[in-house]
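Quick bug: Xanthine dehydrogenase family protein molybdopterin-binding subunit output formatted oddly.
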Amino acid sequence: MTATIEPEVGKSRRRKEDERLITGRTRWTDNIALPGMLHLAVLRSPLAHAKIVSIDTSAAKEAAGVVAVYTAADLDPEGAIGMPCAWPITPDMAAPRRPVLASDRVNFAGEGVAVVVARSSAEAHDALEAIEVEYEDLPPVLDLEAALAEDAPLVHEELGSNKNAFWVFDSAEAGTGGNVEEALSSSEVVLKRRFRQQRLVPAFMEPRACVVDPTGAQLTMWSATQVPHILRVMSALTLGIPEHKLRVIAPDVGGGFGGKIGVLPEEMMSVLVANKLGKPVKWNESRSETMLAAHHGRDQIQDITISAKADGTVTGLKVELLANLGAYNGLVGPGVPILGAFMFNAIYKIPAYHFACTNVFTTTTLTDAYRGAGRPEATFAIERIMDELADELGMDPVELREKNWIKHEEFPFTTVCGLTYDSGNYEAATEKAKELFGYDALRREQKERREANDPVQLGIGISTFTEMCGLAPSRVLGSLDYGAGGWEYASLRMLPTGKVEVTTGASAHGQGHETAWSQIVADQLGVSFEDVEVLHGDTQSSHKGLDTYGSRSLVVGGIAIVKAAEKVVAKAKPIAAHLLECSEDDLEYSGGKFTVKGTDSSTTIQDIALAVFAAHNLPDGVEPSLDSDATFDPENFSFPHGTHLCAAEVDTETGQVKLRSYVCVDDVGKVVNPLIVEGQVHGGLAQGIAQALFEEAVHDESGTLTTGTFADYLLPSAADLPSFTTDRTETPSTTNPLGAKGVGEAGTIASTPAVVNAVVDAVRQFGVNDIEMPLTPMRVWNAVRGGASNAGGPGGEAGGGLGSIDASGGAQ
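Here's what came back:
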């Protein structure tokens, strides 16, 4: 009897890459050392907005170990180099040049004005202190609404305005739904709320770094980047380097979360300096530099208006956004709010929809993609206002959602935005989550605590979400004026001994690609998991790709691997028929083995690989190779969904928030590796909860970042978070052969509104209907005190222990 091979897909494999990553026995950008390598340090502006009157580098040039000091006049004397933006969302979008180094003016605190080149990193940083820069202060531009006033000071005087672009989607004009103004004017209930998405720092584990070696036939750049292929193309276009003469390598990268998708001034600076000196150079930043100058995320003002019938049926949704781009356009920064535009309707059958976004320049660090990129912002707004609508109508918030969500039998469903959701079952996910959570029992406990005037109140938060991920369909991206496609590439190389090498255009920075891709190939070709090697992150070994972001690795890159494997099998079939002396029509293929129907005569892919290597006995005219590649461009996004439930205890006397329990049931389609999925969900939850309760990048009135270290910018530790209860339902995607949907951003997208809804629910009886994030003890206490003094409620005005509240935030 032939042993049955257990499928790899669906198995909780420990990650192949973890042994080297956890032990540090690997290569990061900053531990690369080349012969004769020099070190770079960047002098950054302490001012948010100022003219540069003069820069004196003479003393720095004489400092110990210093080889050179450069300003913009040295590296870009014509002022011709500007960082690229790949997403001009409107034809008239303002596009000020972002220089490698500032020349005449700085536009945010942290912008580079000079670079020191020295024999060691310490010497380069020491010499920065010897550079003298004379600045002439200009007024900072910080407030989004004030920035649009006619008399507002300008970030870029040449533009004549701080407005970057204005982008609109209207369902009536698009023919995908009704007229919002008519819905608002004719509905029985109309509710308007303003929500604030605070500014966040991606706070990846490994700071940004770059090494450039100009001494070979090709210029080689190592970078801690998520996008080596995009970086190669954009560097070639930006600097005029022939693309075939540039090799970009992303070695093991310590996290990104969107924060490493940019094409950086420091990367271009490193190339310019290396070419100028003819020697390899390294730039790496400190943690404080990361927080100051790496791009930030979120930062929106959201004005949301929803209308409904008295029975809770939603009739219209109007969204008006102000989005802070910071001082410049990031690589995809202007388009981040536009990604969210298609998700404000979420899982609901909303008949009329209007979305308008104004992007605004300010004198702050630029913003760009951060985990979820536009979709967490959208989910937060719709899930918050659904809770507000439920309160207005006196309905249970789950009941209101159920009344309006798309039912499982209605899939595929075309939304008011024109997207077609292919599959889903919101009822099943919600029912399972409620059961695991003990929803009804917690509601009873909440009622008892309110009636008892308990100083510690209980709140229950709900977030039912979906997202568009697998950022891919090239035609859709083209219709949104995105500067690239959404396809992904993979190749499979069959080695003579039956082992397999996979090259993938998806570039991992912690997701576990090597493990998941090995599982996929093992099932497709019938080889063992251990016999698959995955190569990635090097534009020489994996020459083609569009990299990793937007939860696209599996549902785009993984499917490219499946398609390449199918081609391997197709190439092997005529050779198998020849070796088995039968017709191709008589062959069956399963688990990596070709078998003659009705017999036990068979041969494996591995046997065929060796026969191809020898090439002694192949059919006439057949190429001696099984190697195959594929480029996959999906026809649609994928739409994972889920229900997240949070129970929060709020001490009304101190503002302290404690997350008592958190349950999430996600549906990410077919799962390749449950262990990796669990890790992705846990990590996403930590980041989403951190936005709700802990994190905020704050600038003072002069535009200086006051949260430039982890002493001031609060990240939660394991002690600050509850143990999560996670589970899954499974409705396979119909748009790819694996049935998979994305998972990388789900936890972050869903968790923030679940936590905020829970805290607001706990103190709503005090007259509180919103608290600005992060929900620090001081903000919660102030909300309770203000609400109680205005609206009354259990316990009246909060008191006691007031002087002990820590206003800096976080759970103390």
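Actually, after a second look the formatting is fine. Residues 791-812 have pLDDT under 50 and may be disordered. Closing.
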